[in-house]
Amino acid sequence: MTAATSFHTGSTSVSGVIRSPETDIKSPIARPVLEWTPEIERETAAIYARVKHVIPSVEWPFHAPYIAAINRLKKERNAVILAHNYQTPEIFHGVADIVGDSLQLARKATEVDADIIVQCGVHFMAETSKLLNPEKMILIPDSKAGCSLAASITGADVRLLKQRYPGVPVVTYVNSSADVKAETDICCTSSNAVQVVESLGVDRVIFLPDEYLGKYVATKTKVKLILWKGHCEVHERFTGEELRAYREADPTIEIIAHPECPPDVLAEADFTGSTAHMIDWVKTGAHKRVLMVTECSMASNVAAEAPHVDFIRPCNLCPHMKRITLPKILDSLLTLSEEVVIDPAIADRARASVERMIALGR
After folding, report:
1. Rounded to whole angstroms, how far apart are CA atoms 344 and 336?
2. CB–CB of 66/32 below 8 Å?
3. Among residues of the chain, what percentage have pLDDT more than 70?
4. At 137, which helix (H) or strand (E)?
5. What CATH number does the domain containing 54 carry?
6. Exposed, middle or buried, 71 (CB in 10 Å: 0-12/13-18/19+)?
7. In this model, does residue 22 exceed pLDDT 70?
8. 161 and 63 in one domain?
9. Is the dihedral of CA 254, 257, 192, 216 positive or negative?
10. pTM of the model
11. Do 13 and 126 share a structural domain?
12. 165 shares a domain with 37
């Protein structure tokens, strides 16, 4: 948890403000009975038809009662669920209203017509939703769902960098905390990082915090990047040697990789792109055997929509994303717990850096 973020459970105090269930939040809702019944089977049949390639039938009787209860509860709470591509298939396909990568979720978060947004991702994503929807209640089902990359840098670190490189603008990956965004000129995602860097019209920028993404961007622009040694613990574990072994075993495979991977991994890839770009690449091409070098739940989610593709998965799980589960989503909606609250002094500055990024894409 960053210094900029606090979490609210029930009607306890947040930053000195007492929220009363009778006045500020909706009344409690009774916990539903979670049983696998013929009614639940019928109610969730269409959903299971979409995911049967990636969720074994023996698992569905456990997931289905939660999915049915969450989807009913969303309507009662006037809530929407945002889910990142790294969420498990039962969340991604079962209860999410909006799915995508960081940029897609950031944009869509500004368009939702709901009182409550439940962010199925990690805490920096929930913070971003709160920045863009300050009047809405933003819930994260597990406040401990962090991010090794976001944790690699603080707002104080950015202030020191700005002192060291006076006048050099700061471009920060959205995979960062609100206090880091508050020290930033403009945010970016892996989808638009090159566009953002070049939009500033300068010969060098401070690019934070992902070193490998920065090295990839540096190959696509003449702008000099001053980098920080932050890494994603999922992507940094892949190696070029590992991918060469896969290709030697099967020369027909096509390798696609996320730019958060080390340079030797990207050198082995047939295509490099953000999660959204990888999904588009799979769906729009005539691909048969694909090795997807990213968090492995994403391959499961894409496989559900592209059953004709045989996915080879050098699987690295994100332990933080996996903190988000159907039972925790249900509890979050029932109790309205784990509300994300950001210090207004930080929020106003952080919001500006995100809005500049979004405006650039319009």
Report:
1. 21
2. no
3. 92
4. strand 137-139
5. 3.40.50.10800
6. middle
7. no
8. no
9. negative
10. 0.84
11. yes
12. no
Strand pairing category for 13-14 and 17-18 = antiparallel
Q: Are residues 141 and 154 in the same domain?
A: no
Q: Report pLDDT digits (tens) over 111-158.
A: 888 999 999 999 999 999 999 999 999 999 999 999 999 999 999 999
In the chain, the number of structural domains is 3
Is 352 domain-assigned?
Answer: no
Pairing of the two strands 254-257 and 224-227: unpaired
Q: Do residues 219 and 287 share a domain? A: no
Q: pLDDT grade, residue 59 (50/70/90)?
A: very high
Residue 222 domain boundaries: 150-232
* 355, part of any domain: no
Q: How far apart are CA 217 and CA 234, in angstroms?
A: 19
Nearest in space to 212 (alpha carbons), one of 198, 196, 225: 225
Query: In this structure, are 124 and 32 located in the same domain?
Result: yes
Chain centroid offset of residue 79 CA: 18
pLDDT tens per residue, range 76-122 = 999 999 999 899 999 999 999 999 887 678 778 788 889 999 999 99
- The pair of structure tokens assigned to 331 is 């509890």
